[in-house]
Amino acid sequence: MTTPSEELPFTEFIQRPTAATGRLSSVRALRLRRRDADDLVVMRAERADREGEVVDFTARLLVSLLHREGGAGLVESVLPEVLPWVRFLPDADIGVFAAELAEIAFAAAALGNTGPVAQLLVEWQHTAEVHADPELHAWLSRPSGQDYGPALPPEDGQ
């Protein structure tokens, strides 16, 4: 059985690549820590392919469940077990979240890029955080008395 992952400095990977990649027989992946940049992950291509297949299968299963009669209710009922912060969302938003999650997961799996799913989860978790804090929710949802118009795109470099 392999362990989830192992960390090592990027310099060690560069200096002893054969020894470092040899560890992949007993770990899922190597996390290469870098001082001045984001960490990197190295894993066997066959494992990455299998994990991609699982993500694709899971996305298709979720979409299929949501399209079945009663499936949306089933998915909505288990979301708080899978993502405990969902309990702070208003009931109406849980259905919106479930549908959006299925659509994004399906599209992301087709691209082989789970980034949009991770981003969606972060966005909805932040929404739950606002609902969990009554003072923050009241402050953010109160009328400002002004309409500032449409949001403008950021300027270059921002």
TrEMBL record:
Protein name per Swiss-Prot or TrEMBL: Prevent-host-death family protein
Top-level lineage group: Bacteria
